[in-house]
């Protein structure tokens, strides 16, 4: 009996396999290197451009002449090669791929480490580097080592102000930054059904912070409803088999409280209550971890009719998210509370575009990494849920969200 | 696949942001990456790693998939990277750009003489020999070709 990764890759853990990929994507930060490698490989035409995507999300819109030129080259290449492009403003690659592209059972590779996000659909999704991506463009396939799997067994329901991000920080703290290296994380248990697709994407997103190759949920009624809403109506559920996990970690969702990862390690996690009162210079809400519609709506509910006490930047994960937030009034609540709204994209999370921190500045972010200097030299990053970020933005310091 | 040089020792969980910061990524000029490699860890390292073998701690190269990290190390003149464990994308990227990566648990201090032989599966520190975890056949072939691009060309 197989784990879901073994089932999708069609071989037992430990085997090396060559597999055609269903979807392969790169962004503006990795795409230009893949293009360079492809040129060096001497490859002219691509066998399966319809499986490939380019997504401009890291520095959007371009901030310097150099960036603009790199993007212009890639834009021209997308036209010539037939690779579909989601241009600046369309959103973060993982979010764009979650809006009606990725389906259960697919093999998905992305030239970005957070490609594991898309395992939320019951796909095997993993990150690769730019040269690997070039070879995938050239051949339509790549090699994989089928991973062993660690089960994350979820039970119960999330209480109060706790949210999927707090569950993600919980398993990252339990496993540590290399606790799942080369492994897949499979999210199972009767608690999984109660987590929305947006929440599952958040949970799978942080798998790589434990070193995992993939994070994966079994497609169920929640998945199928979401896919139908995004124009994909042919998916069927995946039924777990009685399989062998390398180990199992148990998380009772009812025990989850608001958490914060403190500088400079994502696995150094404290209860929000224990770091409450920490001075903040900036709050950042967005990214492939927590920039989805549910996140923006949750944030708006908390800040509605009030004013933030610290500079607060909100970046929707995609144009679709932004558009829905406009239609429902969520965006107006966010803007009226005194927040800035950024172009859908990644920039602030990795300190490459907008929201960069100065020496000694402290940011509470809903992203997935708080490495030293990531958002700017000398800056300090705390990571939290959206509700904790909203409560903290109102207080001007780290605060515990109401209802916790 | 063999190599040797003086050791430059790094700690655990060296992430790719610290190997090459986001602010230096948007260029095709590889000398920029070599010049600023490991800058946020120690700005003097870039000038000291030419011809050296990096001996890192656990989870070497964690974080972002940026291939600029392994290119920066290679362009700065690093001969190879030894660590007890690597983040998987970094490991695969290193092989793909022809930078030898050796998974081995060694005892080492800065400046020690490090030699490795990937085919034979060992690494030596000042003459003390340690076993290295074998690479897959394909990874050996890619490394021997000098990276995935020359490997691809040789297969066509």
Question: Could you explain the architecture of this structure?
Answer:
The complex is a heterodimer of chains A (404) and B (156). By secondary structure, chain A is an alpha/beta fold. Chain A has three domains: 12-144, Aconitase, domain 3 (2-Layer Sandwich); 149-255, Aconitase, Domain 2, CATH 3.40.1060.10; 260-395, 2-Layer Sandwich (Aconitase, domain 3), CATH 3.30.499.10. Chain A has 14 helices and 18 strands. In chain A, α2 (28-41) packs across α3, α2 (28-41) packs across α5 (130-139) and α11 (293-303) crosses α13 (330-336). The model of chain A has no long low-confidence stretch (mean pLDDT 97). Chain B is α/β, with parallel strands linked by helices and 156 residues long. Chain B has helices spanning 16-19, 30-36, 68-75, 88-96, 137-145, 148-155; strands at 2-9, 53-55, 80-83, 101-103, 113-117, 122-125, 128-131. In chain B, α4 (88-96) links the parallel β3 (80-83) and β4 (101-103). Chain B is globular, with a radius of gyration of 14 Å. Chain B starts with a strand and ends with a helix. At the A-B interface, α2, α3 and α5 of A face α4 and α6 of B.
